[in-house]
Amino acid sequence: MSKAYAGETCVLAYSGGLDTSVAVAWLRETLGFEVVTCTGDLGATGDLEAVQRKAIASGAKKAIVQDAREVFVRYFVWPALQAGALYEDRYPLATALGRPLLAKLLVDAARAENARFVAHGCTGKGNDQVRFDLAVGALAPDLTVIAPMRGGMNMTRDEEIDYARRHGIPVEATKKSPYSVDENLWGRSIEAGVLEDPWDAPPRDVYHWTVDPDEAPAKPREVAIEFVEGVPATLDGARLDGVALIRSLNEIAGKHGVGRIDMVEDRLVGIKSREIYEAPAALVLHQAARALESLVLTKEVIRFKARVAQEYAELVYNGLWFSAHHQDLATYVRSTQRFVSGEVRVRFDRGAATVVGRRSPSSLYQTALATYGKGDAFDHKASEGFITVFGLPLRTQARTQVLWGEGSEAALEIPRKALSAPGAAKPGPNKATKRKR
């Protein structure tokens, strides 16, 4: 391939990992680009100056870095938590939530550098390529997206490691432990290498945030989390900003073995993939938030919001953050959180997180109505009329249509003998049914 883009500037979304470090050199060497890297710290980048130095050492002419942790939590993590967004009911979308923000930073950097091209290090079989491409297309449809890993570089991970060594690029991945890892405040995603066999248990070195539940402290630990309109505000009575609260909860829950996910998920591109996640704070906060909602939301809202949560999770996973559909769902979610304020107690015990208490000034739980003891204010006699009206359609149908008579297919093939107690007389024919026949 000729250096068709000599003199052009390309802004590369840069993590400092193997793929993007190799991409810096490849974009310069193969396509002729002047490369500017763009790095957003979402909670795992660490030393931003070190990232800048590494990007320059890899061949970038300029390295832009930005601390985006607070923005990430406030505008991406908390809305997804309020929505209850868990992809396939398990994955709290840590990586998926970070991509639209990184794409926004990428577009902003391209505008600042007067660049017509942006690039990312995503592969052609992953979800992140879709998230970056769609986000850039929604925010800046005039920019051209280049994905070296999707076409052109055509390197395996082992070949990338060799390429990096030949070009003097420092990388942490090794051929012995070739995991692909993405981290931010909300979670840690691990794939590739030995994890690609879904039958094999993950090796111990996969996990960095959580201890093995068998090695967790024998004594359980409880924490109290306060929410204000669906947003976590305090941990054990201490008011913390979002970044600090998530970090503290990651550490506490992780020490008790809470936060591991091992799942086979359905990628957007149509394949199944075995994924390992560590997300202690995310899983605990989702569990606590739903417990508080069970106290303050009506039955109808809880039922419908569960559907919205699934749709919201799919939308985020599929890279449609910057869409009108997301705006509409987010508006509904925000409305549901008006009364989601209160406190939840969660107990950690050897890998398990259990809600053991919840309270709210807006609670719909009334002890006088729920109790079976003294002070019961529920009108038991009123239930007779309620059951009469509620059961009217069922009784009407029973009088006019044979649903459960002898020989009816609707009997779900339950053997008659299974409905009789040992030694009991066998039921005779249903005369009413026989007459109808």
Q: How does this model look, in words?
A:
The chain has 437 residues and is α/β, with parallel strands linked by helices. It folds into 3 domains: 9-68 and 92-175, Rossmann fold (3-Layer(aba) Sandwich), CATH 3.40.50.620; 183-363, Argininosuccinate synthetase, chain A, domain 2 (Alpha-Beta Complex), CATH 3.90.1260.10; 392-436, no CATH class. It is built from 14 helices and 14 strands. The chain has helices at residues 18-31, 48-57, 69-83, 94-112, 128-139, 157-166, 242-255, 280-296, 299-317, 324-336, 367-370, 382-390, 392-400, 431-436; strands spanning 9-13, 34-41, 62-67, 117-119, 144-146, 180-184, 187-191, 221-228, 231-235, 238-239, 260-266, 272-278, 342-349, 352-359. The strands form 3 sheets. Strands 3-2-1-4-5 form a 5-stranded parallel sheet, with helices on both faces. A hairpin with a 2-residue loop joins strand 8 and strand 9. The protein is elongated.
